[in-house]
Amino acid sequence: MSRIVMTAAVALGLALGAGSAAQAADTKQVFDFYCAQCHGEKGDGKGINVTKDFATDPRNFTNKEDMEKRSDEDIRGVIKDGGPSISKSPLMPPWGATLTAAEVDGLLAYIRKMCNCKGK
Ligand code: HEC
Questions:
Q1: How do residues 16-57 score in pLDDT, each as one tens digit?
Q2: Which of 14, 29, 53, 85 lies in disulfide reach of 81, CB 3.0 to 4.6 Å?
Q3: How far is the CA of 35 from the centre of ligand 1 (A)?
């Protein structure tokens, strides 16, 4: 099972590395692959992995009021270093070892689009 997941991850990595022309589409792929199972494909926090046993609900990125309180730096940091880095839930994993800085920047822009907001 884990081998299948690994293979899928490698295949996706190759596909993502294939060219930066379709940057926006790539970011959607990264989001759907790594984030959507918790945050939901639309970013509404209703991913398929989320059960009532989750101590903390994944952030709803479409909530403008919540998301505009976060600076771009906060969002980049929590993506790279995980929830505990800003005293939030460890259910939000750190992605700094998995994603490149460019991918994190892409996700930041993607999240800003979903909330239709700017950071403070
Ligand atoms: C295993 C489930 C899970 C996955 C996968 C996940 N997250 Fe999260 N995320 C959470 C939870 C839960 C929180 C809420 C933490 C809290 O409020 O204490 C969170 C919070 C966040 C926040 C902080 C919002 C705020 O309140 O400042 C950002 C940004 C974020 N996630 C981005 C991402 C991105 C980008 C990915 C994919 C690379 C991702 N998350 C993958 C569960 C997850």
A1: 554 444 567 799 999 999 999 999 999 999 999 999 999 999
A2: 85
A3: 8
